[in-house]
From TrEMBL:
It is found in: Cytoplasm. The gene is efp. Residues 67-122 form the Translation elongation factor P/YeiP central domain. Residues 130-185 form the Elongation factor P C-terminal domain. Pfam families: EFP, EFP_N, Elong-fact-P_C. Pathway: Protein biosynthesis; polypeptide chain elongation. PANTHER family: ELONGATION FACTOR P (PTHR30053), ELONGATION FACTOR P (EF-P) FAMILY PROTEIN (PTHR30053:SF12). It comes from Flavobacterium degerlachei. Its main location: cytoplasm. Belongs to the elongation factor P family. This is Elongation factor P. InterPro entries: Elong-fact-P_C, NA-bd_OB-fold, Rib_uL2_dom2, Transl_elong_fac_P/YeiP, Transl_elong_KOW-like, Transl_elong_P/YeiP_cen, Transl_elong_P/YeiP_CS, Transl_elongation_fac_P. One of its GO terms (cellular component) is cytosol.
Length: 188
């Protein structure tokens, strides 16, 4: 058993007969009254996000997980197929478990958290950013660049990202996987 002082991002806990992963947390010490921890939890079974508050010293049941490196192979309907890079064992996971499945490129390496008690995969941690090629972008109109104007662009995985007007088809761009937003153009 762990307590609220052990809470950190990425920790998996049992709560309300389900397994949740802590996405965000904040220790709050109000001037009046006891301290508490405000958390944002994601259910690993259905992907729903839940806001919850734990009082200070509250006991939480921690789930032991192991992280293994997997390589993304291919999609098949709502399932995504991965291969363990050490044992070459293949698994398929539902798209609800993934944070941003539309930014996942074939051959990309990810970390998969596996419950040590049941040997079932719990969550997939994407890299913090991915580099993808723009397959479609409307041309930027000269004279519209005075402000922070953006346009929609489609990348090689099929995802749509808002990019600055100077981005054209064929450019490679870096995308933040947590927000799905454009970071920078990549020169090769």
């Amino acid at each position: 058993m762990a307590s609220t002082s052990d809470i950190k991002n990425g920790l998996c806990i049992k709560y309300n007969n389900d397994i949740y992963k802590i996405i965000e947390f904040l220790h709050v010490k109000p001037g009046k009254g006891p301290a508490f921890v405000r958390t944002k939890l994601r259910s690993l079974s259905n992907g729903k996000v839940l806001d919850n508050t734990f009082s200070a010293g509250h006991k939480i049941e921690e789930v032991r997980v192991e992280n293994h490196k997997f390589q993304y192979l291919y999609p098949e309907g709502d399932d995504f197929h991965f291969m363990n890079t050490e044992t070459f064992e293949q698994i398929s996971l539902n798209k609800n478990i993934l944070d941003s499945p539309d930014l996942l490129k074939e051959g990309e390496s990810v970390m998969v958290s596996i419950n040590t008690e049941t040997d079932l995969p719990l969550s997939v941690d994407m890299p913090s950013s991915v580099i993808l090629e723009v397959t479609y972008a409307e041309p930027g109109i000269k004279g519209n660049t005075a402000t922070n104007a953006t346009k929609s662009a489609t990348v090689e995985t099929g995802a749509t990202v808002n990019v600055p007007l100077f981005i054209n088809e064929g450019d490679k761009i870096k995308i933040d996987t947590t927000t799905g937003s454009y970071m920078e153009r990549v020169k090769e």
